[in-house]
Design brief:
This protein has two helices and ten strands; from the N terminus they run E-H-E-E-E-E-E-H-E-E-E-E. It is α+β, with helices and mostly antiparallel strands and about 200 residues long. The strands form two sheets. Strands 3, 5, 6, 7, 9 and 10 form a six-stranded mixed β-sheet that branches. The chain is globular.
Length: about 200
């Protein structure tokens, strides 16, 4: 059993516990210098400010436990703190500084601006006319909308011996009051589970 408070659901590599950001690092020095020079020239000629290019790291969520790459036994509780973000839950006027969270276990989140329902779009067994995706579908697919700042994993499937050596990943993204993902930020931690795969 994986526990997170149930609430109504409205219609990679990056630094652990933080978010992805774009940078010129990693390019060959000569290319980076040329790119910087071109960017500076463009700004001087146009008089435009650098805005919306994603150079700033989003630190509104910080995962405080467990430590990244930890080896743990179940249950595993992931905890995080927030700043400059009000946890209000679904409903009300959507803004970028208020809402709630989507927690995902061993899967990628939906694109920015989409709700968690987007993740069901390629499931041929999920028919919207029958109320799918519903809370049960999300739970079965390791997707957990929540207003809490913690998430507990009680059970993990084991299919092969390799599964016991696999790193599991918990990802947290911000949702606005309408349930849409806010920006490209994704905050995560990964861990390995040893021993029994069920809670004792």
């Amino acid at each position: 059993m994986i526990r997170a408070p149930k609430i109504p659901i409205p219609g990679r590599r990056r630094l652990p516990g933080t978010t992805m950001r774009r940078t010129l690092l990693g390019r060959p020095p000569q290319r980076a210098s040329i790119a910087a020079a071109v960017l500076a020239m463009a700004l001087l000629l146009s008089g435009c400010a650098v805005k919306g290019l994603g150079f700033r790291e989003d630190d509104r969520v910080k995962i405080v436990s467990p430590k990244n790459h930890s080896t743990l036994t179940l249950p595993v509780t992931v905890r995080w703190t927030t700043k400059d973000f009000r946890v209000t839950g679904p409903g009300g006027s959507p803004t970028d500084d208020a809402g709630y969270f989507a927690v995902l276990l061993d899967r990628s989140p939906q694109p920015p601006g989409e709700t968690v329902e987007w993740l069901a779009k390629d499931d041929p067994t999920c028919f919207r006319s029958r109320g799918c995706p519903d809370a049960a579908w999300f739970t079965d697919h390791n997707i957990f909308p929540t207003t809490a700042t913690s998430f507990t994993v009680d059970v993990l499937p084991t299919r092969t011996k390799e599964d016991r050596r696999t790193l599991h990943e918990v990802t947290v993204v911000l949702l606005d009051a309408a349930g849409r993902r806010i920006g490209e930020s994704a905050f995560w931690v990964d861990f390995r589970v040893t021993g029994t795969r069920t809670r004792t």
